[in-house]
Each structure stands twice: as structure tokens, then as C-alpha cells.
Design brief:
Layout (H helix, E strand, L loop, with lengths): L1 E2 L5 H12 L4 E5 L3 H14 L4 E5 L8 H12 L4 E4 L14 H29 L2 E5 L12 H21 L4 E7 L12 H9 L9 H13 L8 E4 L8
Parallel strand pairs: 1-2, 1-4, 2-3, 4-5, 5-6, 6-7
Helix pairs in contact: 1-7, 3-4, 4-5
Length: about 240
């Protein structure tokens, strides 16, 4: 299985969950080299030679097919692609530039599309699965995050479109997290966080493994589910 953005946070939780269930993994990372190697060592200690790392910039479109080729070269098959890697930062109207557009659209939409395209022939051979990590803000745009919200909305549309294009051999689904992990740049203060949590029905934030469980379900326990996006948000998307 190939997971993008797998070194930390939600990506690492997905890796741990799938590995615990017996998967061999190709873990992609961009800059989090230390975290990636630590995770690889942890998982390989549990099951030797089951995890390989791959460093790449997903904005390099020409290199996306190579990521898939390297995965096939290492494991000789591909059963699942998890498009988890994502850029996330504010782009209020008046401050949007072509560079930030390229960054957010590139990581959140273009890379998942071209990785899926490269992976499709291999996934068809194995009856494989694609899981895209979208966002509840694909349907309810996040204020001041115009380009991010648009990119995730497009990724949700891509998920449904690919399900039609690649079925019946390949299933394609998505997971839309809500308040799972907070931005690390300190941009969301405690008041903002509490306001977000107050809009969840469960009145708490989630954990990265909540997303990982949903990903595992869609890969391993949902053979008759395709073209669907599961919100993992404590009910926030129906309570805003």
C-alpha cells in the first residue's frame, strides 16, 4: 500500500493502523525525514522489511508516476493508494497569488489525480482501492481558506468521478475529517478551537486514529462501497 504524507499526524496514524492489520507499506514524505525514519524503524521492528520510505515533492508532476513505479518495484503489487498529503494555509481574497494556488491545488488535487492515474492499472490487477483524505470544508468552505476549500471540494468531486471511471475493478472513496489535529503554526488560538469543538455533536475533538479506522474500513471491510465520502467529524458537519 502507498500512503502519501505518511510521516506524521494523520498520515502516521493511517500507516500504523494499516500496518497493524498486516499491510506492507510504501510511506511517502516530503520534508519530515526524521519522523519518517522513526516511523519506519518502529514498524519494521514489529515486522521486518515491511515498510519502505520514499521522499518526493508532490508538486513535481513529472515525478508522480515514478512514486508508483518505485512502489511496484519494491512490493511487486499495489493494493491501495491513500492520498493523504495536503498543504493547508489561509488564502483570503485579495492575497491569493498564482504561487499559493499552485501549491494548494497541486498537493490537494493535482497530485491525487496523477497518482491515481499512474496507480490505476496496478490497482485493477489486484482489485484495489483508492482512499482520498478530503475535508468537511469541501462542502462548507472555511472562511479565509478559499483555495484550500476549493481544492478539497474538487478532490471530493474527483473521488466520485474516479469511482465511475475505475469501477468495477477499483473502488474509490474518501474520508472527510473534522476537528482531528490542529494547525501547528499557532494560527488557531484556544478560543477558536473551543468554538469549533462546541459545534460538534460529540463535544470533543477527534484523534488521528479515528480517521485511520475509517480508512481501514474503506480498504478492507467495505467491498460494496464506492464513490462515498465518510465524515469523521463528531457530527460537526450537520451541526454548524
Amino acid at each position: 500500500m502507498l500512503i502519501t504524507g505518511a510521516a506524521r499526524r494523520v498520515g502516521a496514524a493511517i500507516a500504523r493502523r494499516l500496518h497493524r492489520e498486516g499491510a506492507s507499506l510504501m510511506l511517502h514524505y516530503r520534508t519530515s525525514e526524521h519522523d519518517a525514519h522513526a516511523l519506519q524503524a518502529e514498524l519494521n521492528a514489529a515486522r521486518a522489511n515491511s515498510v519502505t520510505l520514499l521522499q518526493a515533492d508532490l508538486l513535481d508532476v513529472a515525478g508522480l508516476a515514478e512514486i508508483v513505479r518505485n512502489t511496484i518495484s519494491r512490493f511487486e503489487r499495489l493494493d491501495a493508494l491513500v492520498n493523504n498529503a495536503s498543504s493547508f494555509f489561509p488564502t483570503p481574497v485579495g492575497e491569493i497569488t498564482p504561487a499559493v494556488w499552485d501549491n494548494l491545488i497541486g498537493t490537494n488535487l493535482r497530485a491525487p489525480l496523477f497518482l491515481a492515474q499512474a496507480a490505476a492499472p496496478h490497482l485493477k490487477k489486484t482489485g484495489g482501492v483508492i482512499v482520498n483524505i478530503t475535508d468537511i470544508h469541501a462542502e462548507r468552505p472555511l472562511k479565509n481558506y478559499v483555495v484550500y476549500s476549493v481544492a478539497k471540494a474538487a478532490l471530493a468531486g474527483l473521488t466520485k468521478s474516479l469511482a465511475r471511471e475505475l469501477g468495477p475493478e477499483v473502488r474509490v472513496n474518501g474520508v472527510a475529517p473534522g476537528a482531528i489535529v490542529w494547525p501547528e503554526d499557532g494560527s488557531w488560538d484556544e478560543v477558536t478551537r473551543q468554538r469549533i469543538v462546541s459545534h460538534t455533536i460529540l463535544k470533543r475533538s477527534g484523534e488521528p486514529d479515528d480517521v485511520a479506522r475509517a480508512v481501514y474500513y474503506l480498504i478492507a471491510e467495505a467491498p460494496y462501497v464506492t464513490g462515498e465520502i465518510i465524515a469523521v467529524d463528531g457530527g460537526r458537519s450537520i451541526n454548524i
